[in-house]
Amino acid sequence: MTITASPSAPSVTRLALELPWDARSPAVARRTAACWLESAAYPRTADAVLIVSELVTNVVRHTRGPCRLALTEDGAYLDIAVTDDSEDMPDVHQPTDLDRPGGFGLKIMHHLGDSVRVVPRIGGKTVHVTLRVPVPPHDRRGPP
Hints:
Blueprint: E1 2-9, E2 12-19, H1 25-39, H2 45-62, E3 67-73, E4 77-84, H3 105-112, E5 115-121, E6 124-132
Antiparallel strand pairs: 1-2, 2-3, 3-4, 4-6, 5-6
Helix pairs in contact: 1-2, 2-3
């Protein structure tokens, strides 16, 4: 596991985490993301950590290789990205299908995220879930 946390621009912060294909990787990703987001006082930490958990769990369940988690926050949006080495696109099936467990992950991501996109590449894909950073009431422009 490798962790990189460094600003790439004055207003952008980023956490990058290399995770092995291991049943413990979702828990490691959750804890690392929660600590990073809490230290930045990110207002949607619970939503972001749930999305991280679902994305990394999907990699462990549906691929046979490592993944890379990247959290990038620019003040307006948090981009949660998980890259894996499988070219198979996510399969959305009905969670009521009794023969197949699960099926809630992408639905959760679509519900919590402001946007969800899958970017295919040769040798894998990256799933991005973007969360809008809420503006605190005292920072909103307009009449008091």
